[in-house]
Structures are given as C-alpha cells and as structure tokens.
Amino acid sequence: MNIMTTDIEGVVVISPRIFKDDRGYFFESFNQKDFYEYVGPVSFVQDNESRSAYGVVRGLHFQKGEHAQAKLVRVISGRVLDVAVDLRPGSPTYGRHVAVELSGENHLQLFIPRGFAHGFSVLSEEAVFQYKCDNFYCPSSEGAVAWNDPDIGIDWKLPPEDVVLSAKDSHHPFLKDLLQSSVK
Question: Cys bridge to 177: 49, 58, 144, 173, which one at CB 3.0-4.6 A?
C-alpha cells in the first residue's frame, strides 16, 4: 500500500496495490500489519456500509468523548467527495478540512483519526460507501457540524440545488457555535 499524507496531521490517503489481468483485478483493502506500520495501531471493531443517490450529502458527523471514532473509509462503487474536518481542541489545523475524491475506480481510502467530523457528497448516480470504525456507535454521543458552514468552506462539488440532506443533517450548528469541549 502507498500512504499519502495530507495537509492535516494524522489524516492519510491510502492507495492499495492493485493486481489486474484479463479476468479483472485483486487488491487487499486492509492488512493490519501494513496499516499498523504506516498509520499506527488502530483496532477496528465495526464495519458500516451505506448506499446513496446522486446529490446526497451525509455529515458532518462525529462521536464525542470516550465514544470518539477513527475511521477508514472507501467507496465500493460510484464516486464521492469525502471530507474530514479537524475538531481537535488546540490543534493548529482546528476547523480546517481535507477533501478527497474516493471511487470504485481509484480504490483510494481515507483514514480519519479520532477528533474529526466526517461527511461525504455523492458525485455519481449512486455510491456504495464502506467504513471501518475503531469504536462502537453510541447515539447519545453523536455530534455534528453544518455541512455548509461558511467558516469551513467545503466545496462539495455539487450545485446547491442538487444537494439532498436528511432532516437531521439540515439543522446542525456552525463550528463557531460548537464548544470545542463538546468534541472531546
């Protein structure tokens, strides 16, 4: 696997070695030994998958406190813009984000450490999205930041009229209205 650093410490893009021939392709989507060597020890305990249509924006979600989650995300089919926003109190990159296009064709993965909000927009007709989490989901520890926070300034690569949100995702606070301690 090839590890590419980003502008925010701890967030990395992983590009697997892909073996192709006339039958198709093969690659390891996860190898604990290699992952530990390049990223560090993270023990994943839960795998999730979602399917979404074009224009859907999911996020920006995070888990607070002892239920915080690191994630390793990838797209099985389709294309998304995946986004991680730094919410670590005292971080020099607090409020900044990394955005990476993940697709079923490029097979890239994004590792997002604990202390980040996460979201994605679907750029293809449909996308199947998978993610590994290092902590179990806990509804009482949910937190979120508005997907369209002007201080974060994410270009979701969608015309505003095409954005599709859940009722819940359309009412999250802006980052300036969140207390940094609420993310800990």
Answer: 173
Residue positions counted in the chain: 184
Lowest mean pLDDT among 84-93, 99-108, 130-139, 170-179: 170-179
CB 145 within 8 A of CB 172: yes
Cα distances from 58 to residues 33, 53, 65, 151, in angstroms, run 31, 11, 21, 18
pTM, entire model? 0.93
Please state, in angstroms and rounded to a whole number, the distance separating the CA atoms of residues 154 and 69. 22
CA distances in angstroms from 93 to 98, 115, 120, 184, listed in the order given: 10, 12, 20, 16
| CA distance linking residue 77 with residue 59, whole number of Å | 19
Residue type present at position 28: E
Asked if 117 and 149 count as a contact pair (C-beta separation under 8 A), the reply is: no
Do 1 and 17 contact (CB within 8 A), yes or no?
Answer: yes
Q: Which residues are the active-site residues?
A: 61, 131
Among candidate residues 170, 140, 121, 164, the one with its CA nearest the CA of residue 66:
140
CB 130 within 8 A of CB 49: yes
SS3 123: coil
What is the rounded distance in angstroms from the CA atom of residue 146 to the CA atom of residue 136?
Answer: 23
Q: Quote the DSSP letter at residue 67.
A: G
